[in-house]
Amino acid sequence: MFRVCYGSAPDGLTCPIHRAVCVILAPVRDGKVHGNNNVIKVPLVTEGPGRGSSTMIGGGNRHMNNAGRDGENIGNCPFSQRLFMILWLKGVIFNVTTVDLKRKPTDLQNLAPGTNPPFMMFDGEVKTDVNKIEEFLEEKLTPPRHPKLAPKHPESNSAGNDVFAKFSAYIKNPKKDLNGILEKNFLKSLKKLDDFLNCPLTDEIDANSTEDVAVSKRMYLDGDELTLADCNLLPKLQIIKVVAKKYRNFEIPTEMTGIWRYLRNAYTRDEFTNTCPADSDIEYAYINVAKKIQ
Q: What is the pLDDT of residues 133-147, one digit of tens each?
C-alpha cells in the first residue's frame, strides 16, 4: 500500500490551490508496489469549508465525483488528473479523501517540511517532479499485472507541449493591443498539435499497400490506446476548452479536425471523463487568473 496526497501546484500551470486530496493506493493482492511508508504528493484543488469525503476509484468502482468548491470532492488541477488517469489505466484501486491544506494534518506536514506539493516520498527519498512520479509509477506498476503506458512513438511525448503555455499567456493578458498577437500564437500552437494528430504515424502506413494514408484515423496521440502522453495533455486541453470559452469566448476552430477527433474519443473513456473536474470548478479556478481585456 502507498499513499498519494494532493496539495498546491507550481505556478507554471496556474493552478490556485487551497485544498489537498489524500489518495490511498492498494494494488490487488501482492502488487509489486507495497509497504506502508511510501507516500506520493501531487497537486489538486478543491475549495470550501474544511470538510472531507472519500471516494474509491479504479477496479470495480468506476466512479469519481466531480466537484471542488464544496470542500469535499476533487477539483481542478491537470497534475492531479494526470496521475489519476495513469493509476486508473494501470488498473489500481485507490481511495480519495479530501483534506484542508490550510489545516494540514501533522503527518502531511512532516512528509517533506518546507516543500510544497507536488512531491513523492518513497523509501525515504523525496521526488518533487511530477514527471518523476510518473516515471516511478511506470517503472513499478509493470506487466503482466499492470499495462505499460509509455508511448511507442517518441514524438507523441512532445505533441502539444507548448499549447498550455501559449494559452496561459493569452488568458492572463489584460492588454487589448497584445490580445491579437497572443491569440495568434495560441492558435499556431493548436494548429501544430492538430497537424500532428492528422499526420499518420509510421505504423498506420502499410509499406505493401498502393494506397496512401493522407489523414490519420488514430484515436489518441500515440495510436488507439491512451498512453502517458495523453494523461499529460488531455487534462490541459480540457482546461483550455472550458476557460477560453468562458473568459474569451474562444473555441477551438472546427476545422482543427484532429484535435476534435482526439477530444471526442477521449470523452468516451471513463479514465478521462470520470477524472475531469466539473466545468464550473475549472471556471472558478480561473476567476482571478483570466484577465479582462482593457
A: 899 889 988 999 999
What size, in residues, is the chain? 294
- Which residues make beta-bridge pairs with 7? 43
DSSP for residue 94: E
Residue entry with cell 469525503:
53
Q: Bridge-partner residues for 96, per DSSP?
A: 23, 55
Determine the Cα–Cα distance for residues 223 and 153; give it in Å rounded to an integer.
9
Domains, the chain, with CATH or none: 2-140 (3.40.30.10), 155-285 (1.20.1050.10)
CB of 56 closer than 8 Å to CB of 35: no
> CA-to-CA distance for 219 and 204, rounded, in angstroms?
12
- Residue 195: all three cell numbers together: 497537424
Amino acid at 14: T
Beta strands 38-43 and 54-57, pairing class: unpaired
What is the per-residue pLDDT across 139-198, written as a single tens digit (0 to 9) for each?
Answer: 988 999 999 999 999 999 999 999 999 999 999 999 999 999 999 999 999 999 999 999
CA distances from 141 to 22, 91, 127, 215 (A): 20, 9, 17, 34
